[in-house]
Amino acid sequence: MEEEKTTGEKTGDDTQSDISNMEKDNEIERLRAENEGFKKEFKTLKGNKAKSDLPKPEGAETFIEDTRDILNKQKKYKIMIPSTERERDPVQVSINGYAYNIPRDKEVAVPQSVLEVLNNASHTVYTIKKRAEGEEGNELVPQEVRRFPYQSVN
To answer: Is 108 domain-assigned?
Structure first.
């Protein structure tokens, strides 16, 4: 049996592999440097652009203020929106651009218009109903329910 001798010399395949790896390493370094440049440019642009610099639709600010004034004059209702297994986040209601963030599990007073939005927000849930005797399988029955059920608090 002949033994292979290792001489430490590189074959053509090894040299080609090293060049390929060096090219990949160089490309990775170039991309990292380019990415850092983009990050710096983004931070500069972000720092120079305040929210107040962004264009607003004509009359938007006064429209939202008018909506707020109207909502503040409306009759208030105390409600509590309970958390569920799936939903624990506050409920967000927006009326003409004026936003309400209603916390769950706390008594809050909301204007009549917010209450109307909650009453009109619905979605469809499906329940399984057994079919009549003699018929096989079950039936899915759709039902409209409130999206955000709440309790009135006196």
So the answer is: yes
Q: Which residue range forms the structural domain that includes residue 115?
A: 60-152
Query: Which residues, 6+ apart, have CB-to-CB distance to 10 below 8 Å?
Result: 18
User: pLDDT by residue (tens digit) across 51-70?
Assistant: 555 666 676 678 888 888 99
For residue 88, give the nearest of 78, 102, 100, 77 by alpha carbon: 102
User: Is 68 domain-assigned?
Assistant: yes
* Calculated CA dihedral for residues 96, 99, 104, 107, nearest 10 degrees: -80
Percent of the chain scoring above 70 in pLDDT: 80
Length of the chain: 154
What is the value of pTM for the model shown? Answer: 0.56
> pLDDT per residue over 23-43, tens digit each?
888 888 998 888 888 888 777
Is the residue at 10 inside a domain? no
- Nearest residue to 79 via CA among 135, 128, 146, 26: 146
In a domain, 99, yes or no: yes
What's the number of domains the chain is made of?
Answer: 1
Residue 124 in contact with residue 142, Cβ under 8 Å?
A: yes
